[in-house]
Amino acid sequence: MRNTRMFQSKDISFTTNNILWKPSTNTKWLSKDEVNFESEFYHSQFKPLFHLLRLLGVFPVEIPKTGTPRFCILSPAVAYSVCLYLLLMVSFYCNLQERMMALHDSRNFDYKIYNVLHVSISGSCLVVPLIMALDLKKLVLYTGEWMQYQILFRKVTGQLLVLSVRRRCICYAVLSCLGGTATIFFYFYEPRVPLLALPSYMFSGILAEIMVSYWMITFHSLALAGSKYATCFKSKLKQGTVSAEMIGEYRILWMRLSELVSGAGVATETLLALHVSILLFGLVMCLYGLLFGISDGHSSRNVTMTVIGVVGLLFVAPFYCICSQADYIMTTVETKVQKELHHITTWCRRQDIQQEVNNFLGTISMNPPVISVLGFTNINRRLFASFASAMLTYLIVLLQMKMGEAESDKT
């Protein structure tokens, strides 16, 4: 069941001035980590990815130096996004014309699959920004929820929740740009790709890679937050300072962590569902194209099919990492906390502590850290296994259709 409680606030922006923590102006007696705490906020660490998404026109928000991103419908960023979208429509139309002519001229099943794959790749430049617009406000809210959790984590545990993913965001942003611009390969090896169609290919390639990077780093950050929570809770119990108040504070912190994990799916739920569907469709087409390109010689079209197939296979690794991180949060972290709570019940006989422990266990069972995709399925390793099974099933269906076409040609 999806958890949408975190989005009940009417505001879609948060600032560091109206929440619990404010950095001290006297930094003489503070450690380096405490001075740089504001730079460790989720929105500060993810700024390289947010700036790139803003440049692509799919994240039209204001990104201030301090505070979370803010969205305003009447802003230059929104106007820029609309203009860029109109240019992409022209680019996609040029490619669509060529592909429709190719589909009309060719009766070969393999070439039809090939042209449909091209239309799908370039067409995502129009679909993804529209889907992203539906999730925009929830994504802005989610950055504020991360900041509130980091502040509450410091208040409860006395430690900083250091994400340290800014460099990773920069590296992924650079790699996404390089991978997207590599789609210029189509212009040199595919005779039916017009020059005006290249922007749609480049935009689609960069956007697909940057969104996968965002999900990978976000899920990594959630796994880090869950692991840090379990470690702090265990070390607090080892100190021997167990009290009903302390367990109650960690119970509230668990509820916020569970909402944060569930919010990762809610914040980009529509786009995440679209990405899983497109990935399944694209991988089936890419694998079929890879087999077709390898088996049918070395013409420019077959080289293109082989390259697309290899690139499609490379997208499987990030998807597996996303499923693994979500599975770690849902099983390993939850199991660690439950194990420590059951251990308390074996030696502590105080009624108030026993009551808080039971409340904590009930909270864990009622608020599991689950990442859902539109409520249809949960992201975990079982999803990856189901995904691989469906991919092989559809690939076999395509191969059977190819064999049936070959037999009809002989007849």
UniProtKB/TrEMBL annotation:
A Gene Ontology biological process term: signal transduction
Primary residence: membrane
One of the Pfam families matching this protein, by short name: 7tm_7
UniProt subcellular location: Cell membrane
UniProt xrefs under InterPro entries: 7TM_chemorcpt (IPR013604)
Bilayer-crossing regions: 71-93, 113-134, 169-189, 201-226, 271-291, 303-322, 383-401
Topology in membrane: Multi-pass membrane protein
Functional note: Gustatory receptor which mediates acceptance or avoidance behavior, depending on its substrates.
UniProt name for this protein: Gustatory receptor
Naturally occurring in which organism (per UniProt): Zootermopsis nevadensis (Dampwood termite)
